[in-house]
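Milestone M4 deliverable, item 7.
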Amino acid sequence: MADHPVIRESTLEEQCYFYAKYDKFRDLKALFKKGAEHPDLNARHSNNWETPLFAAVDRDSGRCAMFLLSKGADPNVANMSGSTPLHHIAAAPSRLEMAKALLEAGADPSAANKRGATPLHIAAGAGYADLVEALLEKGSDPLALDSDGATPLDRANKSILALEDGNSLYAGLARSLGKNRDWQRAKTLLTAATESRLLARETQATTQPKARASGRSL
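Output delivered:
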């Protein structure tokens, strides 16, 4: 965390964070007038280590988030829990376009937080199939293990089992989140990606010894 400065009081960085947090788009843009000193967009708040970009994403301010990205905000700067903005919105179906913008700006689809969870783990557990698909297309690892030793597919399966248990508190929460969520589709996508990645590993494991043997024979 030492590689990014802390936001101090009465600074441009504090103003930037405040404007992003409260969706004050005009004020945010005004900080970047031509010829003026600009704030460090990757400075982090002392309370939670969140950047202005993180604050904009948390506020669901797409315009502020997009503007900050256009000015060079790093989408991979993590907060105190090791989560990036992409982790933060990975369970929010209404923010698919913002998630895609983060990915296009270079957000790491396989970044792990302090619990070992990647955005794919979170999206899978939340049944956010559209983002599961987008993350897989960007190369997110379907075999990644979180601190519980679970893969994203395990997370999706756990949610599906919870949904089938009518007495489960988790199932009640999952159903309350219902709109735009499709756990079965997420499972299908993850199953295919997992099988493909395992097959690629097996193929690589079998071809490498042959290549080494061929090299020795020469």
